[in-house]
Amino acid sequence: MKLTLHHINLSTEKVGEMTDFYRRVLCLQDTEEDIPVLEKDKGYSGEVGFVWDGAVQVHLAEKDVMAGFKTGQIVNPLVRGHIAYRTDDLDAFKAHLDAQGVPYSDWAHAAVKGWRQIFFYDPDGNIVEVHEVVD
């Protein structure tokens, strides 16, 4: 099971302004590579700006305090944002979390088409996503 940093998600009420800021000030570029297709009818219908440095994406997502309720999940990654890792074997990673005693919310395909996602908290309450791309 391999993990690689995929994106950092910042929750905001200013998607356009934040996207412009990250383009102008940090000189990040728009990307069409590996952009998630949002499942807007399954739980999260917000707008998202996507920029990157050529390796790691920044997702500037519209804050949605109700996304956890809409999906029936305890962890809501759209309140404060999160850091996201991609894995090649989500089931193995879930087994690893179970062995470590770390609870997680399994969002499955509720937010992104073609991604299986889980979310959990680190010891300081920061949200961590791990996802796998599936056909």
TrEMBL record:
Gene3D superfamilies: 2,3-Dihydroxybiphenyl 1,2-Dioxygenase, domain 1. One of its GO terms (molecular function) is lyase activity. This is Lactoylglutathione lyase-like lyase. The keyword Lyase applies. SUPFAM superfamilies: Glyoxalase/Bleomycin resistance protein/Dihydroxybiphenyl dioxygenase. Residues 4-133 form the VOC domain. Keywords: Lyase. The keyword Hydrolase does not apply. InterPro entries: Glyas_Bleomycin-R_OHBP_Dase, Glyas_Fos-R_dOase_dom, GlyoxalaseI/FosfomycinResist, VOC_core.
